[in-house]
């Protein structure tokens, strides 16, 4: 049924609204290092390129200039310790996510996650939502040498599951997802409700622009 056998999902801004927990961890890190807290809206615009870049963007905003290596390393360690404590707390899945994932599995679709979030944080998040068994493969931003917008993790998933990129759909909220999918030769859905540095995901030119996760069923479960 449908044109796609495998669906690769982004995580932050696609399945879960993780900004509240990311902002908590960023703020604990900033305060620990003697800076003032950042607003949640600012953090929303800094998410997308993994934890190193999130920390770097927060430090640059706090300092008004690029941070040095030593500060970045200390800040990343402080962020990791803080995010470890909150990453799976009070998780909010976007409307329709859990039901739609279950429907896709029932229809025999193969599902994977390719996130830029460091891998160590991901299993606890999936377990907290009862989703540990839904995905055949989960890659974090540090699972391979390259992260999105590189196509490498998306192609790695296809190779590992013996799937054709042309019959794979990528689903994400950021231009990184669209660029990675395009370079991998995959079709891509852009969701409007996530984080794209404050920009409209339609500007990145995904094949479909959806404001509702449940609408994926129209693409994936109809002929
Ligand atoms: O953690 C990030 O920076 C982004 O994560 P995502 O790839 O799941 O959107
Ligand atoms: Mg995302």
From TrEMBL:
EC number(s) on file: 3.1.3.18
Domain of life, source organism: Bacteria
Binding-site positions, Mg(2+): 10, 12, 173
Cofactor: Mg(2+)
Gene3D superfamilies: HAD superfamily/HAD-like, Putative phosphatase, domain 2
Pathway: Organic acid metabolism; glycolate biosynthesis; glycolate from 2-phosphoglycolate: step 1/1
Keywords: Carbohydrate metabolism, Hydrolase, Magnesium, Metal-binding
Active site positions: 10 (nucleophile)
Gene Ontology biological-process entries: carbohydrate metabolic process; DNA repair; glycolate biosynthetic process
Reaction equations catalysed: 2-phosphoglycolate + H2O = glycolate + phosphate
Pfam family of the protein (one): HAD_2
GO MF, any single term: phosphoglycolate phosphatase activity
GO cellular component, one term: cytosol
InterPro entries per the UniProt record, alphabetical: HAD-like_hydrolase_sf (IPR050155), HAD-like_sf (IPR036412), HAD-SF_hydro_IA (IPR006439), HAD-SF_hydro_IIIA (IPR006549), HAD_2 (IPR041492), HAD_sf (IPR023214), PGP-like_dom2 (IPR023198), PGPase_prok (IPR037512)
NCBIfam families: HAD-SF-IA-v1, HAD-SF-IA-v3, HAD-SF-IIIA, PGP_bact, PRK13222.1-2
Function: Specifically catalyzes the dephosphorylation of 2-phosphoglycolate. Is involved in the dissimilation of the intracellular 2-phosphoglycolate formed during the DNA repair of 3'-phosphoglycolate ends, a major class of DNA lesions induced by oxidative stress.
Family: Belongs to the HAD-like hydrolase superfamily. CbbY/CbbZ/Gph/YieH family.
Official protein name in the record: Phosphoglycolate phosphatase
Lineage: Bacteria, Pseudomonadati, Pseudomonadota, Gammaproteobacteria, Aeromonadales
């Amino acid at each position: 049924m449908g044109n796609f056998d495998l669906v690769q999902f982004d995580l932050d801004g696609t399945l879960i609204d993780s900004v509240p927990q990311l902002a908590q961890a960023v703020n604990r890190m900033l305060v620990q290092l003697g800076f003032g807290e950042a607003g949640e809206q600012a953090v929303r615009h800094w998410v997308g390129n993994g934890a190193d870049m999130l920390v770097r963007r927060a430090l640059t905003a706090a300092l008004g200039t690029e941070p040095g290596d030593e500060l970045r390393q200390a800040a990343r360690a402080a962020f990791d310790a803080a995010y470890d404590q909150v990453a799976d707390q009070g998780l909010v899945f976007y409307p329709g996510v859990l039901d739609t994932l279950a429907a896709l599995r029932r229809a025999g679709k193969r599902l994977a996650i390719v996130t830029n979030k460091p891998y160590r944080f991901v299993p606890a998040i999936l377990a907290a939502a009862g989703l540990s068994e839904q995905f055949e493969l989960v890659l974090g931003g540090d699972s391979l040498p390259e992260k999105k917008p590189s196509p490498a993790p998306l192609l790695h998933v296809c190779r590992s599951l013996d799937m054709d990129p042309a019959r794979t759909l990528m689903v994400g909220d950021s231009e990184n997802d669209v660029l990675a999918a395009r370079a991998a030769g995959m079709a891509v859905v852009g969701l409007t409700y996530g984080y794209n540095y404050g920009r409209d995901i339609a500007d990145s030119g995904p094949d479909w622009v959806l404001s509702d996760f449940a609408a994926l069923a129209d693409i994936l479960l109809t002929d």
